[in-house]
Amino acid sequence: MPELPEVETMRRGIEPIVGSRIVSITRPACNRRPILISPSIAEIQDRTTGKRISRIGRRGKRILIELEDLQVLVVEPRMTGLVLLVEPPTPDHLRLRIALTDTVHDEVLFWDRRGLGTVRLLSGEEAATVLGTAKIGRDALDITANELRDQLSSSRRAVKVALLDQKHVAGIGNLYAAEILYLAEVDPRTRCDRLSKPQWARIHHAISEVLTEAIRHEGSTLSDGTYRNALNEDGGYQNYHRVYDRAGLPCPRCENAIIRRIVQAQRSTFFCPHCQRKSGRFHRS
Q: Engineered SS bond to 270: which of 165, 225, 226, 243, CB 3.0-4.6 Å?
């Protein structure tokens, strides 16, 4: 589930380790589905031991632990991964342990219940290629209104589906796409090539507003309780969701309609059929 706000919250949470040195990187014994770690843990250990951490970055939904020699340890949480400074929710889904020195926090942990996350150590050159704009789109918090429209306005896909494409805009997932389109008053089923310039402007504004607000509340911890911040604490933005997972409840804005749930690209979409009605969606300006 972690999307940009959750990953950014994790990034900020582990930022205090900047300046520390890596003592070891180990893969704890785990009888669950193994995650992808590349290259081998032995090679990662050999290449990183004694290296100082120079920066904690983020690229879309990935956390970047940048080292002094320009190597980058890329952690992609995917559905259920967490990056932690304290003991994890359960001991049997712990996937990676990074022991540190010269810091108040003596380790960073990667925990993943479903085992879909990945950890990759990249050289500086590899990172420039793998994390470059040819592979991953502009960050959702950095993309301009014109760039967003240029990237998506010619697509025949529904706008909700298009916003999930990380090659065009990085960081938005299923939850926040629904919230963004609700705030922008845009029907999630509308084809991108049928949206007007003012509608694209509203979507861009909503992206910034929703993601910034969600980061301020340290992300969303849903009913399954999986997402936690770096200190193993709940996020708070779930208390401010306008439409996500609220099917059957009154719209918080118009109060004249009931939030609906539909399925798009095998994902649940929540929207208000009144506030996000289709009327006028074929007019361009």
A: 243
Q: Are 163 and 188 in contact (CB under 8 A)?
A: no
Nearest 5 degrees, angle CA 150-CA 156-CA 161? 85
Spatial CB neighbours of 189, under 8 Å, sequence gap ≥ 6: 158, 159, 160, 262, 264, 278
State the Cα–Cα distance between residues 216 and 141, nearest whole angstrom: 14
- In the structure, what pLDDT confidence band is assigned to residue 1 with cuts at 50, 70 and 90? confident
**H/E element, 269:** strand 267-271
- Residue type (1 letter), 191: R
Do residues 38 and 122 lie in contact, with contact meaning Cβ atoms separated by under 8 Å? no
Burial class (CB within 10 angstroms; exposed 0-12, middle 13-18, buried 19+) of 252: middle
Do residues 241 and 217 lie in contact, with contact meaning Cβ atoms separated by under 8 Å? Answer: no
Catalytic residues: 2-3, 61, 267
Buried b / exposed e over 225-241, threshold 16 CB at 10 Å, is ebbbbbebeebebbeeb
Note whether 175 and 221 are within 8 A (CB): no
Name the H helices within 63-131.
Answer: 124-130
- How would you classify the pairing of strands 267-271 and 260-264? antiparallel
> What is the C-alpha to C-alpha distance for residues 253 and 242, in angstroms, rounded to an integer?
9
Helices (H), the chain: 4-14, 41-48, 124-130, 145-152, 159-163, 174-184, 197-216
pLDDT digits (tens, 9 = 90+) for 36-50: 999 999 999 999 999
Q: Please count the other Cβ atoms lying within 10 Å of the Cβ belonging to residue 23.
A: 16
User: What predicted TM-score, i.e. pTM, was given to this entire model?
Assistant: 0.95
